[in-house]
Amino acid sequence: MARRTKSKPNRKKSAPAAATPKPAMTTARRKSAALLAKAVPPPAKPIVRAPAQRRLVVGITGASGVIYGIRLLESLKGSGIESHLVLTRPAEMTIVYETAYTPQQVKALADKVYPIADIGAAIASGSFQTLGMAVMPCSMKTLAEIATGVTGNLLSRAADVTLKERRRLVLVPRETPLHLGHIRNMASVTEMGAIVAPPMPGFYAQPQTLDDVINHTVGRVLDLFGIDSGLVKRWNGKPRKDV
User: Does the predicted model carry a pTM greater than 0.90?
Assistant: First the structure.
């Protein structure tokens, strides 16, 4: 008996449906889309803040003790911190009187040197970022100018800028004895935000030479800017000796 074979239904493949045409954009809709694109601002770019500039302004006046400012410049050399130097004319004279350096040799220690009369220099503007300023040594004349806001040259102007920008200003006065006007000026600059740091030796470090005394003072001034120069013999406490 012959087997009946089931015939497969003849299925025809249907043609894909034609895509529905999008309605043409009218002129009014185009204008509306253009206005919307203008109204929506592009995504804001992330703010990348530049690292704080590692610069220190150094002022040297004509007071006795210019070796302090010179040693400060020597300590900053190769430290990764730019030194921006301004010297008064009396400072250049005192360098010759008190040290074996010439003013040109002292200037060569700094990364950047500014003429004392250049009130348009970078350090005369608060927009020029620095760690602050050290005036070392600071004469009583310069102290008085800073205390009263009379900025007669670039050094006192740079100090005034440091105060107004709320940056650290360290003044190292080298004068003794002091009269009441000196003391009042020191009080005034302290109230304005400066730090008055007379060069007082730390005898607990048992200095053996004059260099030890100078290095201790310079190192303590750099401490005030968060700079460890390696010049300071730190006090870590010592056992009490029996008397």
Answer: no
